[in-house]
């Protein structure tokens, strides 16, 4: 399916970008956002545009929509149906947007006008209320008639994004520019939205420019993939070809560091060291040169333009494709033996919980009272009867969608939140340490790294030089030089901040390390380095790790066991490989099916994740469960975690396991 | 909705109660002795004691406060030492003139503020200069604006009158007390026109400060809203600039400007006290200026209560309007 | 209940950059210069006053420049320039005292409320909001009028109504900071309440407090001048800018400079304050 691109070269392109350069102004600096991009989009084609943050994807989107800020300087052309969206008069561009273009942006909450009803907003694009209603129905909004009168904040994230899509396809545009349309959504909802995009393409026949930082997302729906790096095209070709036979070292690096459900658990993850170049001072030659293993003398001299390496497959690299592929093969073989310094596999052996207990969570309940408008308070059941034991030195991952209570569980264990019921016992009575999702925000901005790490040493009596030494040792352990102690968080990059946070947590090694999505704010190339580091620290310091993530492939790598949460309950718990490869709970199955991965494309789980404000009675999953029976909705039903198979280590909370 | 209104009204009642407590406490802390003020310095001890008793001043404070409150509920603000009239009656006499001036200034401030916001938002050559004029406007004391206005428009150009509300000795005194309206109601448009002329200078002097503040807030929320994601969405829909502005930018910018207007009314009330003085405007401000030097505390207290309660009431209305306009505001 | 947006402080918070376009550094330099100038004039006033501001030193009602009186003389022959300088000095001190005490009291209330949260926060902020819901200038006038005219009473009156605004802003900033993960990280690192407040919260609120205070100087000066105009400042014959205008209003139409010059001095001072405030904001970032 992926290779049978409907894009036929002869038909005139819907959009043509030719030698596009865009320079933006920030403060008194020039940001060279796009530095020579050429590509075209055929009728009915989905082009996936992939790149790390800052590579210029969104600026490209804005160029196509003719919505660049007024002080942007441009050259080249950006044609949509023959009109140049860079230089055409404002009125012409506006008409093009009105008649031929649609747009979907990343954050549907801020992208909708908060004080205007949904129906009115869609009708602005659709010309009439009837058409708006029809569109809302077409994008799968249940109860569309009533929702017309709703305000954006009254809808869930998934529904809001559907509203955005309804506006984008109003008036049957020939091209929809979708900038990270699923990044803010949960995986199951992401799968629904991607499926929707493709079915709309099939019905309306419009093209899509689908911008994403996740190769897996592009792999799922795109006909062709374009990889961008530092404002330039690195590689472009049919999806299957680029994913399987990538020709550019950067694409290969991205593919290598990307985690999937099949990544090896016993080797350190491949990483892409280094950072994207500073957009204010772009390099003259190949921008990837500072990070490229194959770099030659020729690379840094002059811009490397994409050339065709196979029909319809472009790559911007001076080396012949055979040489690139050959070198990568060799590098892979070498990596088989763990390189010095990163010894061993990230996760450790899949030991069963044995030995002493590090954390014992028993029947913990947590309820928040939240404002419900009109001055009322509403109960929000964040944790509903959670029990979980983590052994000394063990690593347990907690996965679940947003609102399932993962972070709350972690915060209750950390003592940052008081449990409303049940008990938390810490094996050693020592306070656990925690690493946060946004490492930058977890470091006090006006204190130096040295102050922050040293703060944990206050209790221990030691001289100042001793303290300095301990701080330096902690920094060395996370791979940072000692002089980092003198700087503040703002001067560090994202990956460095997360390392500082880890150094702070481990300067006095805790018995338990709690990690709340420590990699989800990082680009793939940085995330794998942090995951490797957590694995190494865990082994060297003998810590138990509780790792919260929404990403099953990360969970599988970092954890011995995985606990799957849904609406404040653990619905499945077991050995990491077992849970991923032999999921038993229907929710886990749906979750695994929704992981955007190459080739896989099971039907998306219907419906929105239910709200913890109104958890459905009985098994809370029943409104979305494909195998639900009538009893599942019985308010007296409380599915408990029960062991299955021998050893009973794999536990599932479903009354119909026999069907599975 | 009903809940929202009742909650806001409840809050308003509490704040007004605190206001009465503040005024009462001030009265107690005042070095002026009401009895002496009433009887004069030569009164005999017995007379003073008798008067104290008659006024309830020998009772414990809480019960004095209670009496004070019950009197307030009967619209009894006491007697003015200076005019020897009930203060309620005095205020009723002087309120219309002040109300007319304040209303006129408020409308001026809104119009000017909006114009300033729009003029500084648009890109044109004078925008930079205009912005400097704005800072200067915000830095000028109202009384300086007032006397500057008199010097230029009365003395130099002779375009506008400098004092009072009207040039007519037989101007109608009812039914509303607002001369501009009463002139029309009495079928004498010349009175209305003349009253307008009298309003211009004091109104401008009062309005310029608040207009700058309102204009700035409006401008910054207009500018801020133009950069929002939903405006980008609206542009991407291909809406015309005008309808993006009207439907998405302006509507969402009015809230902060409205709050600012509510708050500026407090400044305007203080300004009225000053400005009426300059223009011999026969309103509450002049009444207060005359009361201050002679220590006529009951009069000052009455004015404080009236203006304070008015301010609180106006801001409560602003609040309710805002909650109605923005569906996200929690009650 | 007294909370809600009735009390949302908008006093010059939402102020857009006024003189933008001229380059941030130039504005900041100009601001620093004006601030230094204002302070210098205030501190050196007794030395640079050409005459005694309180005594008649020449013929009454001389026009500016006449007989060497740079800004003329007033109705009883006192040197207006000397009186303006003396008034400048007392306005400067008044502003400094009110702002310093407002920052101190408001900062303390805001810090305690923001750091402790919960009931403490609730009670302190209800009180603050109630005060904010009253018209500050009107209350200040009432207080000053009741206590009787004197410099100390004016300061007290304005000080009483000035701190709640700072308390609100600083508390808000502290609450925003307190919601950041860095505070939880510090708690996990073993920092107690007091250490959290002083080390992990307070420094973050300082720039906001400074910006708020400097943007506030202009309106404070105008409020003080208004009180003085109403006769609620120092008693005669002290030189005070607002009062000097008010007392000489009757000369407006013959000898305009007698009432106008002190008013212009207020304007200049407030203008310097406003520009300096903008400069400080540009320097410390928009908050
Ligand atoms: N302090 C709080 N007050 C009120 N509600 C809260 C609070 N903390 C969490 N919640 C709510 O509890 C529910 C579970 O939150 P939690 O943060 O644990 O979810 P999560 O699975 O980590 O989601 P995400 O992936 O978005 O971080 C959510 O609905 C959240 O809004
Ligand atoms: S051009 Fe050179 S530096 Fe760039 S990707 Fe190819 S080999 Fe690496
Ligand atoms: S208990 Fe019922 S609803 Fe819940 S997962 Fe099992 S079958 Fe589905
Ligand atoms: Mg979370």
Round the mean pLDDT of chain C to the nearest integer and report it: 82
The CATH superfamily name of chain C is: MetI-like
User: How far apart lie the N and C ends of chain A?
Assistant: 29 Å
Overall structural domain count of chain C: 1
Biggest sheet details of chain A? 8 strands, mixed
The level-1 CATH class of chain C: Mainly Alpha
What distance lies between the first and last C-alpha atoms of chain C, to the nearest angstrom? Answer: 27 Å
Number of helices of chain A: 20
Please describe the topology of this protein.
The complex is a heterotrimer of chains A (660), B (331) and C (287).
Chain A: E1 15-26, E2 29-41, E3 46-50, H1 57-65, E4 73-80, E5 83-84, H2 90-100, E6 101-104, H3 108-111, H4 118-126, H5 129-138, H6 144-147, H7 157-169, E7 175-179, H8 187-204, E8 207-212, H9 215-221, E9 224-229, E10 232-238, H10 239-244, H11 249-257, E11 307-310, E12 313-315, H12 321-335, E13 357-371, E14 377-391, E15 395-399, H13 406-414, E16 421-426, E17 433-435, H14 449-455, H15 464-477, H16 494-506, E18 512-516, H17 524-541, E19 544-549, H18 552-558, E20 561-566, E21 569-575, H19 576-581, H20 586-594, E22 642-644, E23 650-652
Parallel strand pairs in A: 3-8, 3-9, 6-7, 7-8, 15-19, 15-20, 17-18, 18-19
Antiparallel strand pairs in A: 1-2, 1-4, 4-5, 9-10, 10-12, 11-12, 13-14, 13-16, 20-21, 21-23, 22-23
Helix pairs in contact in A: 4-5, 4-7, 5-7, 7-8, 8-20, 14-16, 15-16, 16-17
Chain B: H1 2-29, H2 34-39, H3 45-55, H4 61-73, H5 87-121, H6 127-139, H7 142-156, H8 179-185, H9 189-226, H10 229-236, H11 241-279, H12 284-291, H13 297-325
Chain C: H1 24-48, H2 80-116, H3 118-132, H4 136-147, H5 151-178, H6 181-188, H7 193-229, H8 241-247, H9 257-284
Helix pairs in contact in C: 1-2, 1-9, 2-3, 2-5, 2-7, 2-9, 3-5, 4-5, 5-7, 6-7, 7-8, 7-9, 8-9
The structure holds adenosine-5'-triphosphate (ATP), iron/sulfur cluster (SF4) (2 copies) and magnesium ion.
Magnesium ion binds at residues 406-407, 517 of chain A.
Detailed description of the structure:
The complex is a heterotrimer of chains A (660), B (331) and C (287). Chain A is built from 20 helices and 23 strands. Chain A is an alpha/beta fold and 660 residues long. In chain A, the strands form four sheets. Chain A has an eight-stranded mixed beta sheet with strand order 6-7-8-3-9-10-12-11, with helices on both faces. In chain A, strands 17-18-19-15-20-21-23-22 form an eight-stranded mixed beta sheet, sandwiched between helices. In chain A, strands 2-1-4-5 form a four-stranded antiparallel beta sheet, covered by helices on one side. Chain A is globular. In chain A, 52% of the residues are buried. With 331 residues, chain B is an all-alpha fold. In chain B, helix 7 crosses helix 11, helix 8 packs across helix 9 and helix 9 packs across helix 11. The radius of gyration of chain B is 24 Å and the shape is globular. Chain C is built from nine helices and no strands. Chain C starts with 23 loop residues before the first helix and ends with a helix. The interface between B and C is large, with 78 and 60 residues. Bound molecules: adenosine-5'-triphosphate, iron/sulfur cluster (2 copies) and magnesium ion. The site of adenosine-5'-triphosphate has 14 residues of chain A, from strand 13, strand 14 and helix 13.
